[in-house]
Amino acid sequence: MRFDEWRETRMRAVKKINNNVAICVDGNGNQLVAFGRGIGFPAMPYEITDLKQIDQTFYNISSNYVDMINELPEDVISFTARMLDDVRAVLPYELMPNLILTLADHIAFCLERHRRNIYVRMPLTYEIAQTYPLELKLAQYILREIEKNFHAHLNPREASGIAISIINARLDTKPLTSDQQELNQRQVDRMQEDITRIIEREFHFTCDRTSFSYARFSTHLQHLFERMSTNTEIATDNAHANGIPVHICGGSAADTLLIDFYCAVGIDELSVSPGSVLEVKKAVIKSKPVK
After folding, report:
1. What gap in Å lies between CA 178 and CA 200, rounded to an integer?
2. φ/ψ (deg, to 5) at 219
3. What is the pLDDT along the chain (291 residues), one digit of tens a residue?
4. How is domain 74-168 classified at the architecture level of CATH?
5. Are strands 269-271 and 247-249 parallel, antiparallel or unpaired?
């Protein structure tokens, strides 16, 4: 056997997690978490001579998460691993390795709530549907598979919690340090508060910063700041670049307070009821687009 072939088939168990899970080192010196019936039973360390004993392997799992394995059902971890294979095949970005355990923990808690008939309100359901439609579709797929595999009829809103787990596990190519993240968050909080005070001053009212409406407003601002920091074009720019006109219809199109904004972002056409045409036309003529 060539050395490279031997190295690829070599596995050394170095620490027991439980009888069926162990921390191992592969032939290239990479540490991993391995699942397999009985692989954690022998005295450590030892060579695993038959790799068919190993059912699944997970690389780059943070040591802070390894202890979670003993608290999670093995069938839930295996199920989560299969689901993440499907998710990674669809998403256009990488996911953090620890998601296998954080999502398994979330799913296990969903099943526990179902068994105990506990209802938990899922936050940001509307915002997730609008902002992360792909992640929500994947989460809905996972929810259907949970129901089929574990024979549990779950609240459809549980998909929002699964989607949040996926969104939070997005792996940035250039992750920020904790100090940078803290600084960025302080800047975002300060900009949001400045914008809120401008709105309060201009429209002569006080925002209830604890209300659901303000939470939705805050979410939209967060995504605006993210687009600004990454220089991501808004939908109208992308549409125009591809020769596609952008239209708005209904009550929002007839809101004259928004006309300056619509003109600024390049909306091509407003479709309104006959009774609103004159007022909207006047507003467009007088428009002073915001920059």
Report:
1. 33
2. -60, -45
3. 333 333 456 789 998 888 888 999 988 888 888 888 898 989 999 998 888 888 888 888 877 777 788 888 889 988 998 999 899 989 888 888 889 988 998 999 899 888 888 777 665 666 677 778 889 999 999 999 999 999 999 988 889 889 988 988 887 655 555 665 666 677 778 888 888 898 888 888 898 887 756 766 776 677 677 666 655 555 566 566 666 677 776 666 777 777 777 777 677 788 777 777 888 888 888 876 544
4. Orthogonal Bundle (1.10)
5. parallel
As a dihedral over the C-alpha atoms of residue 96, residue 100, residue 103, residue 108, rounded to 10 degrees, the angle is -170
Alpha-helical regions (H) of the chain:
3-8, 63-66, 74-90, 99-115, 125-131, 133-150, 158-168, 178-203, 212-230, 235-241, 259-265, 277-285
Residue 77 three-state SS = helix
**Amino acid identity, position 21:** V
CB 111 within 8 A of CB 76: yes
Same topology, domains 3-59 and 74-168? Answer is no
Among 274, 273, 267, residue whose Cα is nearest residue 289: 267
CATH number for the domain whose boundaries are 3-59: 2.30.24.10
> What residues does each domain of the chain span?
3-59, 74-168, 244-291
Please tell me the pTM assigned to this model. Answer: 0.55
Residue 235 and residue 248 in contact, taking contact as beta carbons nearer than 8 Å: no
Task: Give the relative orientation of helices 99-115 and 74-90 as an angle to the nearest 10 degrees.
Answer: 120
Torsion sign (Cα): 203, 228, 222, 246: positive
